[in-house]
Amino acid sequence: MNQLILPSLKGKFGSWVYFIVTMKLSDVANKSRISTVTEIEELYSKNINDVLQRDLDSKRINKIAEYLQNQNERFLSSLIVAIFKGSPIWSEIRIEDNFEIEKKKIESEKLQYARGRLGFLTLNGDESMFVLDGQHRLKGIREAYKRNSELVEGDDIILTLVVHESKFKERTRRLFTVLNRYAEKPKKAELIIMEEDDAAAILTRRLLLTHPIFKKENSIAKGKGAAIAASDHRSFTTILCLYDIVKELIEFKSIYPKSSMIKRLDDKKLDELYDNKILPFWDYFFDSFPTVEKYIDGKILDSKFLRNKENGGSLLLRPEGQLLIASLYKHFESLGSKQFLAFKKRLPKTNFQLSSPLLKYLFWTGEKMNTKNKALKRKSFLFQLGANIDATILKKEFTALYNEYNDEFKTTLKVISE
Q1: What digits encode the pLDDT tens for the residues 319-355?
Q2: How far apart are CA 3 and CA 123, in angstroms?
Q3: Which of 299, 250, 256 is CA-nearest to residue 279?
Q4: Of 232, 204, 200, which Cα lies nearest the Cα of 218?
Q5: DSSP labels for 358-408?
Q6: 136-156: pLDDT as tens digits
Q7: Cα–Cα distance measured from residue 21 to residue 161, given in angstroms and rounded to the nearest whole number
Q8: Using DSSP, how many helices (H) and how many strands (E) does the chain show?
Q9: Distance (Å, rounded) from C-alpha 135 to C-alpha 140?
Q10: What are the domain boundaries of the chain?
Protein backbone atom coordinates (compact mmCIF):
# COMPACT_ATOMS: atom_id res chain seq x y z
CA MET A 1 0.00 0.00 0.00
CA ASN A 2 1.12 3.55 -0.69
CA GLN A 3 2.47 5.82 2.02
CA LEU A 4 0.11 8.51 3.36
CA ILE A 5 1.22 11.71 5.07
CA LEU A 6 -1.80 13.12 6.89
CA PRO A 7 -2.23 16.53 8.54
CA SER A 8 -2.90 15.77 12.16
CA LEU A 9 -3.73 16.93 15.67
CA LYS A 10 -2.40 14.89 18.59
CA GLY A 11 -4.38 14.53 21.79
CA LYS A 12 -4.76 12.48 24.95
CA PHE A 13 -7.90 11.35 26.73
CA GLY A 14 -7.56 9.20 29.83
CA SER A 15 -4.97 6.58 28.96
CA TRP A 16 -5.55 6.84 25.20
CA VAL A 17 -3.30 8.77 22.80
CA TYR A 18 -5.21 9.69 19.66
CA PHE A 19 -4.67 11.53 16.38
CA ILE A 20 -7.30 13.51 14.48
CA VAL A 21 -6.50 13.38 10.77
CA THR A 22 -8.17 14.03 7.45
CA MET A 23 -8.07 11.27 4.85
CA LYS A 24 -9.38 11.03 1.30
CA LEU A 25 -12.55 8.97 0.94
CA SER A 26 -10.79 6.99 -1.78
CA ASP A 27 -8.20 5.86 0.78
CA VAL A 28 -10.85 5.15 3.41
CA ALA A 29 -12.75 3.04 0.86
CA ASN A 30 -9.71 0.82 0.36
CA LYS A 31 -10.53 -2.38 2.24
CA SER A 32 -6.83 -3.10 2.62
CA ARG A 33 -6.38 0.21 4.44
CA ILE A 34 -9.25 0.16 6.98
CA SER A 35 -11.26 -2.91 8.02
CA THR A 36 -14.41 -3.55 9.98
CA VAL A 37 -14.02 -5.58 13.18
CA THR A 38 -15.42 -8.68 11.45
CA GLU A 39 -12.83 -8.52 8.65
CA ILE A 40 -9.85 -9.15 10.93
CA GLU A 41 -8.97 -12.32 12.80
CA GLU A 42 -6.77 -10.97 15.57
CA LEU A 43 -9.49 -9.93 18.05
CA TYR A 44 -12.12 -12.64 17.82
CA SER A 45 -13.05 -16.09 16.60
CA LYS A 46 -15.16 -16.89 13.52
CA ASN A 47 -18.23 -17.55 15.69
CA ILE A 48 -17.98 -14.13 17.35
CA ASN A 49 -17.32 -12.38 14.03
CA ASP A 50 -20.42 -14.03 12.56
CA VAL A 51 -22.53 -12.58 15.38
CA LEU A 52 -21.06 -9.09 14.90
CA GLN A 53 -21.48 -9.33 11.12
CA ARG A 54 -25.19 -10.03 11.50
CA ASP A 55 -25.65 -6.62 13.12
CA LEU A 56 -24.56 -4.76 9.98
CA ASP A 57 -27.71 -3.50 8.26
CA SER A 58 -27.42 -3.70 4.47
CA LYS A 59 -30.34 -1.25 4.02
CA ARG A 60 -28.58 1.33 6.16
CA ILE A 61 -25.34 0.82 4.23
CA ASN A 62 -27.18 1.29 0.93
CA LYS A 63 -28.83 4.51 2.17
CA ILE A 64 -25.43 5.96 3.06
CA ALA A 65 -24.07 5.03 -0.37
CA GLU A 66 -27.06 6.63 -2.12
CA TYR A 67 -26.71 9.75 0.01
CA LEU A 68 -23.06 10.13 -1.00
CA GLN A 69 -24.00 9.59 -4.65
CA ASN A 70 -26.97 11.92 -4.83
CA GLN A 71 -26.46 14.71 -2.32
CA ASN A 72 -24.25 17.62 -3.37
CA GLU A 73 -24.28 19.04 0.17
CA ARG A 74 -23.17 15.71 1.58
CA PHE A 75 -21.27 15.34 4.83
CA LEU A 76 -20.37 12.42 7.10
CA SER A 77 -19.30 12.54 10.72
CA SER A 78 -15.90 11.21 11.68
CA LEU A 79 -14.89 7.59 12.13
CA ILE A 80 -13.04 6.29 15.17
CA VAL A 81 -10.37 3.87 14.01
CA ALA A 82 -7.89 1.74 15.93
CA ILE A 83 -4.36 1.32 14.56
CA PHE A 84 -2.64 -1.94 15.33
CA LYS A 85 0.49 -3.42 13.81
CA GLY A 86 2.75 -1.41 11.53
CA SER A 87 4.74 1.69 12.40
CA PRO A 88 2.84 4.99 12.11
CA ILE A 89 5.15 7.99 12.59
CA TRP A 90 4.17 11.25 14.27
CA SER A 91 6.08 14.34 13.15
CA GLU A 92 5.56 17.49 15.18
CA ILE A 93 5.39 20.93 13.60
CA ARG A 94 7.49 23.14 15.82
CA ILE A 95 5.97 26.49 16.77
CA GLU A 96 8.63 29.16 17.18
CA ASP A 97 8.45 32.00 19.71
CA ASN A 98 7.96 34.56 16.95
CA PHE A 99 4.79 32.87 15.68
CA GLU A 100 2.19 35.32 14.38
CA ILE A 101 -1.57 35.21 13.86
CA GLU A 102 -3.00 37.96 11.63
CA LYS A 103 0.42 39.61 11.67
CA LYS A 104 0.44 39.80 15.45
CA LYS A 105 3.12 38.06 17.46
CA ILE A 106 1.66 35.60 19.99
CA GLU A 107 3.06 35.42 23.50
CA SER A 108 5.00 32.23 24.13
CA GLU A 109 2.87 31.08 27.08
CA LYS A 110 -0.29 31.29 24.96
CA LEU A 111 1.26 28.90 22.46
CA GLN A 112 2.19 26.34 25.10
CA TYR A 113 -0.98 24.28 24.69
CA ALA A 114 -0.55 24.06 20.90
CA ARG A 115 3.05 22.86 21.12
CA GLY A 116 3.35 19.12 20.63
CA ARG A 117 -0.17 18.86 19.24
CA LEU A 118 0.22 19.97 15.63
CA GLY A 119 1.96 17.85 13.02
CA PHE A 120 1.74 15.07 10.46
CA LEU A 121 1.00 11.39 10.90
CA THR A 122 2.76 9.16 8.37
CA LEU A 123 1.20 5.80 7.51
CA ASN A 124 3.73 3.66 5.69
CA GLY A 125 1.16 1.16 4.41
CA ASP A 126 2.12 -1.69 6.72
CA GLU A 127 -0.46 -0.77 9.35
CA SER A 128 -3.67 -2.65 10.06
CA MET A 129 -6.60 -0.47 11.06
CA PHE A 130 -10.18 -1.27 12.02
CA VAL A 131 -13.23 0.84 12.80
CA LEU A 132 -14.35 1.13 16.41
CA ASP A 133 -17.22 3.48 15.64
CA GLY A 134 -18.73 3.98 12.19
CA GLN A 135 -18.83 0.54 10.55
CA HIS A 136 -21.98 1.37 8.56
CA ARG A 137 -20.42 4.62 7.36
CA LEU A 138 -17.29 2.77 6.26
CA LYS A 139 -19.33 0.17 4.37
CA GLY A 140 -21.44 2.94 2.81
CA ILE A 141 -18.31 4.79 1.65
CA ARG A 142 -16.98 1.59 0.08
CA GLU A 143 -20.27 0.96 -1.71
CA ALA A 144 -20.47 4.55 -3.04
CA TYR A 145 -16.85 4.38 -4.23
CA LYS A 146 -17.50 1.04 -5.93
CA ARG A 147 -20.49 2.49 -7.80
CA ASN A 148 -18.78 5.73 -8.86
CA SER A 149 -15.20 6.29 -7.74
CA GLU A 150 -15.01 9.73 -9.35
CA LEU A 151 -17.97 11.02 -7.36
CA VAL A 152 -16.24 10.87 -3.98
CA GLU A 153 -12.65 11.22 -5.22
CA GLY A 154 -12.19 14.78 -3.93
CA ASP A 155 -13.89 14.30 -0.57
CA ASP A 156 -12.07 14.13 2.76
CA ILE A 157 -13.31 12.68 6.03
CA ILE A 158 -12.08 13.15 9.57
CA LEU A 159 -10.70 10.11 11.38
CA THR A 160 -9.90 9.82 15.05
CA LEU A 161 -7.08 7.28 15.20
CA VAL A 162 -6.37 5.57 18.51
CA VAL A 163 -3.18 3.60 18.98
CA HIS A 164 -3.99 -0.01 19.83
CA GLU A 165 -1.43 -2.57 20.95
CA SER A 166 -2.44 -6.08 19.94
CA LYS A 167 -1.28 -7.54 23.28
CA PHE A 168 -3.83 -5.32 25.08
CA LYS A 169 -6.97 -6.43 23.24
CA GLU A 170 -9.19 -5.91 26.28
CA ARG A 171 -8.49 -2.16 26.25
CA THR A 172 -9.77 -1.86 22.68
CA ARG A 173 -12.83 -4.01 23.40
CA ARG A 174 -13.60 -1.81 26.40
CA LEU A 175 -13.26 1.32 24.24
CA PHE A 176 -15.66 -0.15 21.66
CA THR A 177 -18.19 -0.82 24.45
CA VAL A 178 -17.89 2.67 25.93
CA LEU A 179 -18.23 4.38 22.53
CA ASN A 180 -21.38 2.43 21.77
CA ARG A 181 -22.81 2.52 25.29
CA TYR A 182 -23.04 6.30 25.24
CA ALA A 183 -24.17 6.54 21.62
CA GLU A 184 -26.67 4.06 20.17
CA LYS A 185 -27.01 1.38 22.81
CA PRO A 186 -25.39 -1.86 21.64
CA LYS A 187 -27.26 -5.12 21.83
CA LYS A 188 -26.61 -7.30 24.84
CA ALA A 189 -24.74 -9.87 22.76
CA GLU A 190 -22.34 -7.15 21.57
CA LEU A 191 -21.69 -6.02 25.12
CA ILE A 192 -20.93 -9.60 26.15
CA ILE A 193 -18.47 -9.90 23.27
CA MET A 194 -16.76 -6.58 23.99
CA GLU A 195 -17.08 -6.16 27.77
CA GLU A 196 -13.80 -6.13 29.73
CA ASP A 197 -15.09 -5.49 33.27
CA ASP A 198 -18.05 -7.87 33.74
CA ALA A 199 -16.56 -11.23 34.84
CA ALA A 200 -19.44 -13.23 33.33
CA ALA A 201 -18.94 -11.58 29.94
CA ILE A 202 -15.17 -12.13 30.05
CA LEU A 203 -15.60 -15.80 30.95
CA THR A 204 -18.35 -16.31 28.34
CA ARG A 205 -15.98 -14.99 25.71
CA ARG A 206 -13.24 -17.30 27.00
CA LEU A 207 -15.58 -20.25 26.49
CA LEU A 208 -16.28 -19.13 22.93
CA LEU A 209 -12.61 -18.59 22.14
CA THR A 210 -11.01 -21.60 23.85
CA HIS A 211 -13.48 -24.40 24.58
CA PRO A 212 -13.14 -27.13 21.92
CA ILE A 213 -16.90 -27.59 21.56
CA PHE A 214 -17.94 -23.94 21.67
CA LYS A 215 -15.32 -23.16 19.04
CA LYS A 216 -17.24 -25.38 16.61
CA GLU A 217 -19.20 -23.67 13.88
CA ASN A 218 -22.72 -24.72 14.91
CA SER A 219 -22.33 -24.32 18.65
CA ILE A 220 -23.59 -20.72 18.78
CA ALA A 221 -26.55 -19.18 16.94
CA LYS A 222 -25.64 -16.25 14.72
CA GLY A 223 -28.53 -14.09 15.96
CA LYS A 224 -28.30 -11.84 19.00
CA GLY A 225 -31.59 -12.71 20.70
CA ALA A 226 -32.18 -14.86 23.75
CA ALA A 227 -33.91 -17.62 21.77
CA ILE A 228 -32.78 -19.56 18.73
CA ALA A 229 -34.67 -18.52 15.60
CA ALA A 230 -37.33 -20.96 14.41
CA SER A 231 -35.54 -21.18 11.05
CA ASP A 232 -32.24 -22.18 12.72
CA HIS A 233 -32.08 -25.98 12.83
CA ARG A 234 -28.32 -26.27 13.40
CA SER A 235 -27.24 -24.14 16.37
CA PHE A 236 -26.94 -25.48 19.92
CA THR A 237 -27.32 -22.32 22.03
CA THR A 238 -27.04 -18.53 22.02
CA ILE A 239 -24.47 -16.10 23.40
CA LEU A 240 -27.09 -14.64 25.74
CA CYS A 241 -27.97 -18.08 27.13
CA LEU A 242 -24.29 -18.95 27.57
CA TYR A 243 -23.78 -15.67 29.43
CA ASP A 244 -26.76 -16.34 31.73
CA ILE A 245 -25.44 -19.82 32.47
CA VAL A 246 -22.02 -18.41 33.34
CA LYS A 247 -23.71 -15.90 35.67
CA GLU A 248 -25.50 -18.79 37.37
CA LEU A 249 -22.35 -20.89 37.71
CA ILE A 250 -20.13 -18.15 39.15
CA GLU A 251 -22.87 -16.81 41.46
CA PHE A 252 -22.78 -13.42 39.79
CA LYS A 253 -24.82 -11.56 42.42
CA SER A 254 -22.43 -12.55 45.16
CA ILE A 255 -19.55 -11.06 43.15
CA TYR A 256 -21.47 -7.95 42.12
CA PRO A 257 -24.30 -7.21 44.62
CA LYS A 258 -24.98 -3.95 42.75
CA SER A 259 -24.57 -3.12 39.07
CA SER A 260 -22.51 -0.08 40.04
CA MET A 261 -19.93 -2.43 41.58
CA ILE A 262 -19.01 -4.16 38.32
CA LYS A 263 -15.26 -3.99 37.78
CA ARG A 264 -12.72 -6.39 36.36
CA LEU A 265 -11.51 -9.14 38.66
CA ASP A 266 -7.82 -9.97 38.69
CA ASP A 267 -6.70 -12.65 36.26
CA LYS A 268 -6.06 -15.21 39.02
CA LYS A 269 -9.67 -14.95 40.23
CA LEU A 270 -11.00 -15.18 36.67
CA ASP A 271 -8.90 -18.31 36.09
CA GLU A 272 -10.24 -19.86 39.30
CA LEU A 273 -13.85 -19.22 38.31
CA TYR A 274 -13.29 -20.63 34.84
CA ASP A 275 -11.41 -23.74 36.00
CA ASN A 276 -13.48 -24.51 39.11
CA LYS A 277 -16.98 -23.33 38.25
CA ILE A 278 -17.49 -23.19 34.49
CA LEU A 279 -15.42 -25.98 32.96
CA PRO A 280 -16.65 -28.65 35.44
CA PHE A 281 -20.26 -27.92 34.51
CA TRP A 282 -19.73 -28.05 30.77
CA ASP A 283 -17.49 -31.12 31.02
CA TYR A 284 -20.26 -32.83 32.97
CA PHE A 285 -22.94 -31.64 30.55
CA PHE A 286 -21.23 -32.87 27.38
CA ASP A 287 -20.12 -36.12 29.04
CA SER A 288 -23.69 -36.75 30.23
CA PHE A 289 -25.27 -35.90 26.87
CA PRO A 290 -22.82 -36.95 24.13
CA THR A 291 -25.65 -36.67 21.59
CA VAL A 292 -25.39 -32.87 21.89
CA GLU A 293 -21.85 -32.79 20.55
CA LYS A 294 -22.87 -35.13 17.75
CA TYR A 295 -25.71 -32.71 16.98
CA ILE A 296 -23.27 -29.78 16.82
CA ASP A 297 -21.12 -31.85 14.44
CA GLY A 298 -24.17 -32.43 12.22
CA LYS A 299 -24.27 -36.18 12.88
CA ILE A 300 -27.74 -36.44 14.45
CA LEU A 301 -30.79 -36.84 12.22
CA ASP A 302 -33.27 -38.21 14.80
CA SER A 303 -36.43 -36.08 14.54
CA LYS A 304 -37.28 -36.79 18.17
CA PHE A 305 -34.09 -35.00 19.22
CA LEU A 306 -33.88 -32.16 16.69
CA ARG A 307 -35.87 -28.95 17.19
CA ASN A 308 -39.02 -29.22 15.10
CA LYS A 309 -42.65 -28.11 14.97
CA GLU A 310 -44.13 -31.60 15.24
CA ASN A 311 -42.90 -32.75 18.66
CA GLY A 312 -40.52 -29.98 19.70
CA GLY A 313 -37.44 -32.18 19.84
CA SER A 314 -35.23 -32.21 22.94
CA LEU A 315 -35.23 -29.64 25.72
CA LEU A 316 -31.44 -30.00 25.65
CA LEU A 317 -31.40 -27.96 22.43
CA ARG A 318 -33.47 -25.15 23.90
CA PRO A 319 -31.75 -22.26 25.75
CA GLU A 320 -34.46 -22.39 28.42
CA GLY A 321 -33.64 -26.03 29.12
CA GLN A 322 -29.90 -25.42 29.19
CA LEU A 323 -30.27 -22.59 31.70
CA LEU A 324 -32.60 -24.70 33.83
CA ILE A 325 -30.05 -27.52 33.96
CA ALA A 326 -27.37 -25.08 35.10
CA SER A 327 -29.69 -23.79 37.81
CA LEU A 328 -30.46 -27.34 39.00
CA TYR A 329 -26.74 -28.16 38.95
CA LYS A 330 -25.99 -25.23 41.26
CA HIS A 331 -28.92 -26.09 43.55
CA PHE A 332 -27.81 -29.67 44.17
CA GLU A 333 -24.16 -28.66 44.38
CA SER A 334 -25.08 -26.42 47.31
CA LEU A 335 -26.70 -29.35 49.18
CA GLY A 336 -23.45 -31.25 49.68
CA SER A 337 -21.47 -33.95 47.92
CA LYS A 338 -23.90 -36.84 48.58
CA GLN A 339 -26.95 -35.16 47.04
CA PHE A 340 -24.84 -33.59 44.31
CA LEU A 341 -23.49 -37.00 43.30
CA ALA A 342 -27.03 -38.44 43.26
CA PHE A 343 -28.15 -35.54 41.03
CA LYS A 344 -25.27 -36.12 38.60
CA LYS A 345 -26.28 -39.78 38.28
CA ARG A 346 -29.98 -39.03 37.80
CA LEU A 347 -29.83 -36.14 35.35
CA PRO A 348 -28.61 -38.16 32.31
CA LYS A 349 -31.54 -40.57 32.86
CA THR A 350 -34.11 -37.76 32.70
CA ASN A 351 -36.49 -37.64 29.73
CA PHE A 352 -35.89 -34.33 27.94
CA GLN A 353 -38.22 -35.07 25.03
CA LEU A 354 -40.61 -32.12 24.82
CA SER A 355 -43.56 -34.33 23.92
CA SER A 356 -43.04 -36.56 26.98
CA PRO A 357 -45.79 -36.43 29.69
CA LEU A 358 -43.90 -34.22 32.15
CA LEU A 359 -42.75 -31.71 29.53
CA LYS A 360 -45.84 -31.69 27.34
CA TYR A 361 -47.83 -28.47 27.92
CA LEU A 362 -45.35 -27.44 30.63
CA PHE A 363 -42.65 -26.65 28.06
CA TRP A 364 -44.25 -27.56 24.74
CA THR A 365 -47.79 -26.54 23.76
CA GLY A 366 -47.88 -28.76 20.69
CA GLU A 367 -46.88 -25.88 18.40
CA LYS A 368 -44.36 -23.75 20.29
CA MET A 369 -42.51 -23.38 23.56
CA ASN A 370 -44.50 -22.37 26.63
CA THR A 371 -42.68 -19.46 28.27
CA LYS A 372 -44.87 -19.48 31.41
CA ASN A 373 -45.11 -21.79 34.45
CA LYS A 374 -41.50 -21.15 35.54
CA ALA A 375 -42.09 -22.32 39.12
CA LEU A 376 -43.75 -25.59 38.09
CA LYS A 377 -41.02 -26.30 35.54
CA ARG A 378 -38.34 -26.05 38.20
CA LYS A 379 -40.38 -27.93 40.81
CA SER A 380 -41.03 -30.81 38.41
CA PHE A 381 -37.33 -31.35 37.73
CA LEU A 382 -36.38 -30.89 41.38
CA PHE A 383 -38.83 -33.66 42.32
CA GLN A 384 -37.57 -36.07 39.65
CA LEU A 385 -33.98 -35.45 40.69
CA GLY A 386 -34.55 -36.21 44.37
CA ALA A 387 -35.46 -32.93 46.06
CA ASN A 388 -38.00 -32.91 48.87
CA ILE A 389 -41.11 -31.96 46.89
CA ASP A 390 -44.65 -33.06 47.83
CA ALA A 391 -45.81 -35.40 45.03
CA THR A 392 -49.51 -34.87 45.84
CA ILE A 393 -49.30 -31.10 45.42
CA LEU A 394 -47.19 -31.51 42.28
CA LYS A 395 -49.76 -33.84 40.73
CA LYS A 396 -52.55 -31.33 41.42
CA GLU A 397 -50.57 -28.66 39.59
CA PHE A 398 -49.98 -30.95 36.60
CA THR A 399 -53.66 -31.89 36.55
CA ALA A 400 -54.66 -28.22 36.45
CA LEU A 401 -52.19 -27.56 33.64
CA TYR A 402 -53.49 -30.48 31.56
CA ASN A 403 -57.07 -29.27 32.14
CA GLU A 404 -56.14 -25.96 30.47
CA TYR A 405 -55.52 -27.97 27.30
CA ASN A 406 -58.61 -30.19 27.75
CA ASP A 407 -56.45 -33.19 28.52
CA GLU A 408 -56.10 -35.58 31.46
CA PHE A 409 -52.88 -36.07 33.43
CA LYS A 410 -52.41 -39.82 33.95
CA THR A 411 -48.65 -40.06 34.59
CA THR A 412 -47.31 -41.48 37.85
CA LEU A 413 -44.81 -39.14 39.42
CA LYS A 414 -41.63 -40.77 40.64
CA VAL A 415 -38.04 -39.94 41.48
CA ILE A 416 -35.49 -41.07 38.90
CA SER A 417 -33.36 -43.93 40.21
CA GLU A 418 -29.62 -43.51 40.59
Answers
A1: 999 999 999 999 999 999 999 999 999 999 999 999 9
A2: 6
A3: 250
A4: 232
A5: TTBTTTB-SSSB----HHHHHHHHHHHTT----HHHHHHHHHHHHHHTT--
A6: 889 988 998 888 877 666 789
A7: 8
A8: 16, 10
A9: 9
A10: 4-168, 187-297, 301-418
